[in-house]
């Protein structure tokens, strides 16, 4: 993986973030937003908290190569077959970042009440040092980061429509991220490209 594609690189303890605000031109970002909103197979997953199922505060959709499956928020998803738009974005990112993404988890935050809690994307099927590329379209929202062990303050990255944020290798072992609620916000979709290793599927 090569973060040189990103004009802004933020070195953190244990990993780096890369940011490219203008990854997609505004019209391309709008087209991608409309494509995802209209054509992805959105669902609202459930998460188990103390034995009780709660709907998560956002919609999600999982796309990827054949036979890719992924455990997320306590649910196992089998990837839907790529749409041409998502496949072409994945191929471009693989070239630009020298990566091997084979799937994408799409998140749809319908309003400021939709959010994502603190977590690391460190499931075993993502390997020991996952790289995640996140393309944002729609309303700008802030992604917050906090170190897992150090009692340092968290910090936020505003993710503009059309931007690319790359979470580099090592980051998921040392940092958590979250997308807090907002009093008011328009809809936003994030496309988080990942490499899922099929060989560890059987342990899940
Ligand atoms: O919506 C975002 O920018 C973050 C999404 C995220 O953290 C995830 O899909 O794991
Ligand atoms: Fe995440």
UniProtKB/TrEMBL annotation:
Q: Indicate whether Amino-acid biosynthesis appears among the record's keywords.
A: no
Chain sites annotated for binding substrate: 70-72, 122
- PROSITE patterns given for it? FE2OG_OXY
The residues the record assigns to binding 2-oxoglutarate are: 107, 109, 119, 177, 188, 192, 194
Q: Name one GO molecular function term.
A: broad specificity oxidative DNA demethylase activity
**Keyword Glycoprotein carried by entry:** no
User: Would you say which domain of life the source belongs to?
Assistant: Bacteria
Please list the GO biological process terms of this entry. Answer: DNA alkylation repair
Where is each Fe2OG dioxygenase domain found?
100-197
Q: Name one Pfam family in it.
A: 2OG-FeII_Oxy_2
UniProt-recorded name of the protein: Alkylated DNA repair dioxygenase AlkB
What UniProt keywords apply to this chain's record, in alphabetical order? Dioxygenase, Oxidoreductase
